[in-house]
Amino acid sequence: MLPPEPPPLPALTRAESxxxxxxxxxxxxxxxxxxxxxxxxxxxxxxAQALAVRAAxxxxxxxxxxxxxxxxxxxxxxxxxxxxxxxxxxxxxITLPPESTS
Length: 102
Fold this sequence. Notes:
This protein is mainly alpha-helical. Helix content is 62%, strand content 0%. The chain is built from 4 helices and no strands. The longest helix has 27 residues, at 41-67.
């Protein structure tokens, strides 16, 4: 049996799509660096190096939106896009894991 079809992405401008993609890439790198979850220094180092590049791309995406006159973030629409793209799970990697009781 096939997994259920994910909901469709909401309509986004090209700049909004780039913003969402870059934001998720930053979140992914932060999750790999999280000292409460990372297990290897080399992997965390590589993620930290990639974070600088991803953060610059995020900055550029927002600058492009602003330059094009897209001055408002449509938060409900962007939040729906993040949920469709598994943003909740990906962002959860930034937080502290539950404390173990053992």
